[in-house]
Amino acid sequence: MRQTTFNIVLNIRTCNGYECFGKFFVGNNKEFATAIFDQLKGTKNVNEKTILQLDLVEKINGLPANILMISCSLEELAENCKLITKEAFKLLNMEEI
Fold first, then answer.
1. Which of 37, 54, 63, 81 is 20 to 30 Å from the Cα of 88, by its Cα?
2. pLDDT computed for residue 95 by the predictor
3. How far is CA 67 from CA 61, 92, 96, 97, in A?
4. What integer pLDDT is reported at residue 92 of this predicted model?
5. SS3 sequence of the chain
6. How many CB atoms lie within 10 A of CB 37?
7. Closest CA relative to residue 86, chosen from 39, 43, 29
8. Residue 97, pLDDT score
9. Neighbours of 60 (CB within 10 A)
């Protein structure tokens, strides 16, 4: 059976490359996960100088694949975390009903 999950992964650039410093589970539905990611603040212009990067990652049977990426400022990251948390709360509480 194919198990698919979606996460938004927070990465920060260090002298050793990018390091993951946070991850949000955003469900098993690609349309829902993409709709959340599309609301995030930032720019699609991601390059080697990007400091903060957010990735929408699809995992199929444990194998990850980046679907979308954005870069953002620290202020945008704060707003993005607030939005993701609100949407994750809705998702997880709707599953209970």
1. 63
2. 60
3. 16, 22, 28, 30
4. 82
5. CCCEEEEEEEEEEECCEEEEEEEEECCCCHHHHHHHHHHCCCECCCCCCCCEEEEEEEEECCEEEEEEEEECCHHHHHHHHHHHHHHHHHHHHHHHC
6. 21
7. 39
8. 43
9. 11
The structure tokens listed for 51 are 């400091």
Q: How many Cβ atoms sit within 10 Å of the Cβ of residue 42?
A: 19
User: From the first residue on, what is the mean pLDDT of each consecutive set of 10 residues in the chain (97 residues)?
Assistant: 90 94 94 96 91 96 92 97 93 69
pLDDT at 1: 65
Rounded to an integer, what distance in angstroms lies between the CA atom of residue 1 and that of residue 61?
Answer: 9
30, exposed or middle or buried, with CB in 10 Å at 0-12, 13-18, 19+? middle
Question: How far apart are alpha carbons 78 and 83 in whole angstroms?
Answer: 9
Radius of gyration of the chain from its Cα atoms, rounded to whole angstroms: 14
Res 78: pLDDT: 97
